[in-house]
Amino acid sequence: MSAVQTCYIKITEKLEVSSKYIELLNLQRSRGDGVVFEDLEELSTISQEGHEGLEALKLLSEQNNGEGPDYIASVEAILTKLGEVIMDFKAMALKDGLYHRREYSDECGRGN
């Protein structure tokens, strides 16, 4: 397996985690709970890490005589869609007025 293929696999494995957050955010919204800020931030972090991985993939591709243009196109498509999903959740949350932080008990650092 080439370095380009290995990099591609690592990126896509990381991006697969985003589907779990998307499912969670959809569930929260369907129950009327709104969008939990931390979950949306985690999804944004995954997207950012995906973009960083894409830059590494492009560099590896250049170093390996242009190997993997399909891998690059695939990651770009996934990241574009993920960005759209994140923006949709932010818009829905702001529209609904249900964009909030997860509440923690006093034992977790708030209060006394």
Write a brief caption for the model.
The chain contains three helices and two strands. The protein is mostly helical. It has a two-stranded parallel sheet.
Structure description:
The chain has one domain. Helix 1 (3-30) packs antiparallel against helix 2 (37-63). It has helices spanning 3-30, 37-63, 69-96; strands at 35-36, 99-100. 74% of the residues lie in helices and 4% in strands. Strands 1-2 form a two-stranded parallel ribbon. With 112 residues, the protein is mostly helical. It has three helices and two strands; from the N terminus they run H-E-H-H-E. The chain is elongated and about 50 Å long.
Secondary structure topology:
Layout: H1 3-30, E1 35-36, H2 37-63, H3 69-96, E2 99-100
Parallel strand pairs: 1-2
Helix pairs in contact: 1-2, 1-3, 2-3
Features:
elongated, 112 residues, mainly alpha, two-stranded parallel ribbon, disordered C terminus
